[in-house]
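Narrative of accomplishments. A recurring question from our advisory board has been how the design workflow behaves on a single, concrete structure rather than in aggregate. To address it, we present the structure tokens for one chain from the evaluation set, followed by the sequence designed for it. No filtering or post-editing was applied between the two.
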């Protein structure tokens, strides 16, 4: 292995030969198995230093198939043909890659064989698919990768009790929630640095908590409740936690991991990788692992070709819609599911097997989504038979797989589902063809999930031909917003599923005309919404109070690419990431649109608020606090006044410092001016004064010969 060198040496070498490392996509670099060429991992190179096994061995592409029939020489060819037929369907077997040892005494086979594939991935897939394969009643295959035998040989002959390590209490992973100033944390990635900060709006600047260089090799991700910060490395993923120390808590071995996803209550983490085949005609191989976050135990893995995971959905990684598995059942982490061809495979986490041991058959299903709070699936099936069989949206209860509600939809072009975060409502945006089939129009099917028989209401815009640009439910509320229109300045309409006049019908509250907005960002606490104009609108911002139906403030963050509210709804961050070469960094705003501070960072990649777990207060207690807010706010008003006085004192000190710097600069120039006085007098021919008004102006006539010419004059005589 190459000698380990520091990143500083690499950067110095790159600068010496004129290479800009920031312009290089390091993720595209593929290293040979087991080699890192001295490039240290972002985890200080010790992510897996305690792991006894190596991921890539010398015989990882060879499998051993045991429990084969013992046959005489005349049946060798037939047995080899059977084995080749079974195993060549899984991968490419090398020439001469099947070897069946024979007994020197009987000349019969010994009941096992070796099979050599082109790649270790093919060998692993063969082991997975054929271990336990029943050739006949007497011969059930036992398949292992040859590299595994070295591990088995190291098992000691005699049992030895494990060493019991003394209990060492760990750091309280929720301690950051007890911050006396009730601040929130956020993480940013810029260049090679990853930094965690407190948001301190009182001081009009963030406070650094923790920072590391090369902490991750691609991205970072908070867990849904904010307990863990996940990082991604060549060898796998790792999670870190705490208020300020961010010690590593667990690691998850998964070479070449590309994506990760947590379950809603952080019990499990899913890791994903895609591997190129050795044969260009073959498809990519997908590996998905599900780990227990606290113990690091592998609970279940899924492996196969990309075609097995690419059915349904849209977008994603290497043809895969991410996340492949979607979690359901609310915060209990009880179910997860993925879509397949004509099926929805629903698994339960008690055994990590299919519910009722079989997938749910749904012909032609193309998409599904879980209720955020209940084990209810919303399924979408498009039209079939040229429109003879209508499209439909179905609500299915898990684990009983009982259909709670179904709605048939006709002339459907496309369909998209939006759950309200409390699971009370479901909006289905339906794009329908006109009678001529030359254009489409859009409407909404609104499901009231918590009401008896789940009533459905149809909503069409005043101009049903308007294009729907964005839709968003109000968190913890009954309202939603829609951006619609075909012009360069669309309209924004607000609706409510429940008003004092109409408790069971949707009502329009207001339409804002001609707005520079194409994205909607509700505060997590509801009531306030940020109307944002990204991309073509160059970062136009409007902070709107939906309770009062009035604009609180407008602003601009030029070229903004990302917007994210903090989990309490008090502050919002806007960011310009490295998709733009200039103006990289982020701004922090108050909920009512006041710009608090700006931070610039070159090569800015990520800004993520640290999520908070749900409040432990009951709804009644929260309402009581809201009613008596003045009583509770007295303490914080006094603190705010103290901070304001501190800021005023800081401003006074800053102004005094600037004044002192100015006075020092003036005194220095006066000193230089005096030191050069004699030189100036000399330049003025002895005149002593520097004041212009003390001089007397004199006019001096100077005769100057401009030209001389000679002319010969002829003599008149």
């Amino acid at each position: 292995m190459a000698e380990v060198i520091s990143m500083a040496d690499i950067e110095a070498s790159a600068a010496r030969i004129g290479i800009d490392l920031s312009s290089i996509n390091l993720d595209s670099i593929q290293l040979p198995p087991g080699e890192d060429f001295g490039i240290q991992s972002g985890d200080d190179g010790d992510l897996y230093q305690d792991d006894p096994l190596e991921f890539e061995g010398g015989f990882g592409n060879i499998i051993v198939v045991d429990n084969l029939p013992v046959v005489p020489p005349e049946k060798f060819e037939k047995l080899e043909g059977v084995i080749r037929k079974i195993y060549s369907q899984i991968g490419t077997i090398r020439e001469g890659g099947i070897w069946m040892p024979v007994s020197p005494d009987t000349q019969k086979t010994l009941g096992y064989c070796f099979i050599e594939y082109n790649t270790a991935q093919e060998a692993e897939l063969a082991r997975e698919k054929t271990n336990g394969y029943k050739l006949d009643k007497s011969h059930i295959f036992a398949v292992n990768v040859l590299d595994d035998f070295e591990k088995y040989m190291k098992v000691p002959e005699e049992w030895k009790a494990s060493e019991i390590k003394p209990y060492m209490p760990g750091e309280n992973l929720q301690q950051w929630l007890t911050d006396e100033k009730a601040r929130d944390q956020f993480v940013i990635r810029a260049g090679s640095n990853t930094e965690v900060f407190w948001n301190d709006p009182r001081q009009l600047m963030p406070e650094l908590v923790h920072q590391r260089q090369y902490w991750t090799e691609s991205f970072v991700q908070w867990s849904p409740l904010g307990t863990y910060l996940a990082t991604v490395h060549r060898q796998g993923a790792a999670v870190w936690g705490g208020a300020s120390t961010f010690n590593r808590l667990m690691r998850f071995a998964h070479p070449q991991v590309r994506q990760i996803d947590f379950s809603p209550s952080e019990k499990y983490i899913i890791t994903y990788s895609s591997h190129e085949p050795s044969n260009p005609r073959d498809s990519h191989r997908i590996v998905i692992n599900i780990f227990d976050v606290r113990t690091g135990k592998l609970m279940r893995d899924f492996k196969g070709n990309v075609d097995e995971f690419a059915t349904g959905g849209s977008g994603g990684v290497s043809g895969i819609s991410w996340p492949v598995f979607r979690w359901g059942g609310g915060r209990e982490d009880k179910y997860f599911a993925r879509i397949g061809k004509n099926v929805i495979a629903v698994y339960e986490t008690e055994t990590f097997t299919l519910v009722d041991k079989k997938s749910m058959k749904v012909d032609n299903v193309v998409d599904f989504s879980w209720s955020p709070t209940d084990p209810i699936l919303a399924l979408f099936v498009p039209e079939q038979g040229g429109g003879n069989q209508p499209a439909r949206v179905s609500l299915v209860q898990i684990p009983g797989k009982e259909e709670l509600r179904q709605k048939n939809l006709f002339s459907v072009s496309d369909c998209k589902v939006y759950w309200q975060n409390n699971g009370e409502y479901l909006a289905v945006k339906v794009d329908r063809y006109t009678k001529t089939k030359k254009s489409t129009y859009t409407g909404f099917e609104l499901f009231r999930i918590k009401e008896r028989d789940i009533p459905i209401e149809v909503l069409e815009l005043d101009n049903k031909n308007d294009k729907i640009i964005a839709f968003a439910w109000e968190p913890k509320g009954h309202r939603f917003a829609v951006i619609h229109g075909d012009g360069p300045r669309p309209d924004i309409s607000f609706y409510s599923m429940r008003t004092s006049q109409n408790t069971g019908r949707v009502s329009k509250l207001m339409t804002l005309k001609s707005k520079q907005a194409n994205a909607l960002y509700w505060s997590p606490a509801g009531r306030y919404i940020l109307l944002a104009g990204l991309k073509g609108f160059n970062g136009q911002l409007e902070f709107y109070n939906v309770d009062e139906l009035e604009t609180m403030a407008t602003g601009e963050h030029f070229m903004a690419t990302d917007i994210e509210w903090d989990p309490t709804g008090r502050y919002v961050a806007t960011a310009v990431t490295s998709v733009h070469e200039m103006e990289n960094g982020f701004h922090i705003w108050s909920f009512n649109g006041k710009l608090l501070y700006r931070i610039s960072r070159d090569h800015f990649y990520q800004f993520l608020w640290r999520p908070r777990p749900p409040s432990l207060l009951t709804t009644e207690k929260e309402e009581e606090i809201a009613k008596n807010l003045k009583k509770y706010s007295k303490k914080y008003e006094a603190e705010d006044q103290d901070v304001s006085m501190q800021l005023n004192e800081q401003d006074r000190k800053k102004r005094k410092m600037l004044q002192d710097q100015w006075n020092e600069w003036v005194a220095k120039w006066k000193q230089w001016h005096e030191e050069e006085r004699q030189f100036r007098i000399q330049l003025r021919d002895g005149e002593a004064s520097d004041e212009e008004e003390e001089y007397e102006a004199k006019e001096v006539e100077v005769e100057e010969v401009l030209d001389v010419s000679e002319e010969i004059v002829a003599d008149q005589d």
